[in-house]
Recover the amino acids of this structure.
């Protein structure tokens, strides 16, 4: 297979005629070229007067080794094929706690190699989640067990469905192929910045679940993990509560993939003397601009071109106060959503549908925090730090799950005014005017003021006085790491596999999915050796 990268094409390029274009451009013989396919596509907007696509293609041909020498930049490549673990027969079925990205892919791999996993998910199925989230958004009560954080698909389901990652693991290709198999748009297989969107993720999650069940897996919704038993340093049972009744499952393999918001699990583990450690994370606000303004700033006169989707951005600035401010989980054409999971604590996040066509574009604006900020060496000090600012945000919003919100101009001037300008906050159920100083530490607020100005120098209009800041964004990642060894098992308890973002080993949908696969492979290998 021959791969050619960095091919420039105009926005008007007809991708239906890709094969003919490649044959002509590189002087190939038509009858010797087969299966030309697009494997990379990115927008190049560095020159605002010449916005274009940069693509990569792969194709097979006769005499590839000699042909590749004639094409500048061409390389020989072999397609990656994921090899499932050998089939296993598990006397005691492995248990997976949590059905977010890590838990879903752990269950998928174990199901496909015959291990018939049992999944415990405290929240509801994705349809129940949609109803619970919509009730909360429209002024109903918070369901602390089924919300944007908890339930089938995990927190990533109610996000942008962004599939970008800084990791390079080859298993990423398997993750993308499976997502496409279960209903994600085929374009995720070649876009440089792929995303699925909440509306399409719902279908993907359902289809993956049904596939796991068809292979003998079992998913128990409304089943909250509440404890375990162990003998001789190895886990022997897990306990869970469903409809107020406690149940027990005998097992010697548990993948703990609870997500970054399962604070009761962190406390349970601490009380059971499972080794935990503090971990850095970030806090801040969501910033909203008009989508058309961001598109104009990023694409210039090409903004609105039919071949271009809503513009995204990624920014980071190092500040004179020694801190840094960066954007995270940018949602083009999205909304700010209520992400609370505990009573009387307020959290926000961002979400986009696949079309990314809402009025505003938003992003988290975050400042890193670490053990030096927590005020304690307790392993759960970061979690307590999160709770404190979420409680302050709840009060700043009026104590009704309205979110505290202000404009960039108000942040800079330190004074609130009446109403909002061109940019209207998208958060529901409601917002209440409040400055970030009411709920965030002073050093975070100072970093916001300094950093937004710097970012305004990088993207025109980013520091627009009418841009909206809504808080608090406090769940960027887990505040705790559940310590594990090279076998991916807890250093304190054999058979317990801390996994994914909640355990401190991932930072998004893709990396969490990959970590779930790794843990499943480790469990499958142990079951194979045990069965020999």
């Amino acid at each position: 297979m021959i791969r050619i990268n960095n091919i420039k094409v105009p926005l008007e390029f007809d991708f239906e005629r890709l094969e003919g274009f490649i044959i002509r451009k590189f002087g190939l013989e038509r009858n010797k070229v087969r299966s030309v396919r697009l494997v990379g596509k990115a927008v190049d907007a560095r020159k605002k007067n010449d916005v274009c696509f940069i693509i990569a293609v792969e194709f097979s041909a006769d005499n590839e080794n000699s042909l590749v020498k004639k094409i500048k930049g061409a390389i020989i490549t072999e397609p990656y094929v994921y090899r499932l673990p050998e089939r296993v027969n598990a006397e005691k079925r492995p248990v997976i706690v949590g059905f977010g990205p890590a838990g879903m892919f752990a269950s998928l791999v174990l199901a496909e190699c015959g291990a018939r996993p049992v999944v415990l998910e405290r929240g509801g199925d994705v349809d129940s989640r949609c109803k619970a989230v919509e009730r909360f958004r429209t002024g109903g009560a918070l369901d602390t067990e089924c919300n944007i954080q908890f339930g089938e698909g995990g927190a990533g389901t109610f996000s942008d469905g962004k599939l970008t990652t800084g990791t390079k693991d080859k298993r990423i290709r398997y993750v993308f192929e499976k997502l496409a198999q279960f209903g994600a748009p085929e374009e995720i297989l070649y876009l440089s910045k792929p995303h699925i969107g909440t509306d399409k993720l719902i279908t993907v999650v359902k289809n993956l679940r049904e596939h796991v069940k068809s292979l003998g897996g079992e998913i128990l919704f409304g089943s909250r993990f509440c404890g375990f038993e162990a003998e001789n340093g190895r886990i022997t049972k897990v306990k869970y509560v469903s409809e107020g009744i406690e149940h027990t499952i005998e097992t010697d393999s548990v993948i703990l993939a609870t997500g970054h918001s399962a604070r009761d699990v962190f406390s349970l583990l601490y009380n059971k003397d499972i080794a935990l450690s503090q971990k850095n994370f970030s806090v801040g606000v969501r910033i909203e601009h008009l989508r058309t303004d961001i598109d104009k700033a990023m694409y210039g006169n090409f903004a609105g071109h039919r071949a271009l989707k809503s513009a995204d951005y990624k920014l980071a600035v190092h500040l004179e106060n020694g801190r840094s401010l960066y954007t995270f989980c940018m949602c083009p054409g999205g909304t700010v959503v209520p992400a609370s999971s505990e009573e009387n604590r307020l959290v926000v996040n961002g979400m986009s549908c696949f079309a990314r066509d809402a009025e505003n574009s938003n992003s988290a604006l975050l400042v890193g925090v670490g053990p030096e900020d927590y005020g304690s060496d307790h392993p759960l000090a970061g979690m307590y730090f999160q709770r404190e600012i979420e409680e302050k945000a709840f009060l700043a919003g009026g104590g009704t799950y309205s979110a505290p919100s202000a404009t960039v101009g108000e942040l800079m001037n330190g004074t609130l005014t009446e109403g909002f300008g061109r940019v209207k906050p998208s958060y529901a159920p409601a917002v209440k005017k409040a400055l970030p100083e009411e709920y965030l530490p002073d050093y975070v607020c100072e970093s916001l003021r300094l950093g937004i100005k710097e970012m305004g120098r990088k993207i025109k209009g980013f520091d627009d006085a009418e841009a909206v800041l809504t808080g608090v964004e406090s769940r960027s990642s887990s505040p705790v790491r559940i310590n594990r060894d090279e076998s991916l098992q807890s250093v304190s308890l054999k058979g317990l596999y801390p996994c994914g973002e909640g355990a401190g080993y991932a930072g998004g949908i893709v990396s969490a999915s990959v970590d779930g696969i790794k843990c499943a492979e480790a469990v499958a290998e142990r079951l194979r050796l045990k069965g020999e």
Notes: The first helix runs from residue 18 to 25. The first strand starts at residue 2 and ends at 9.
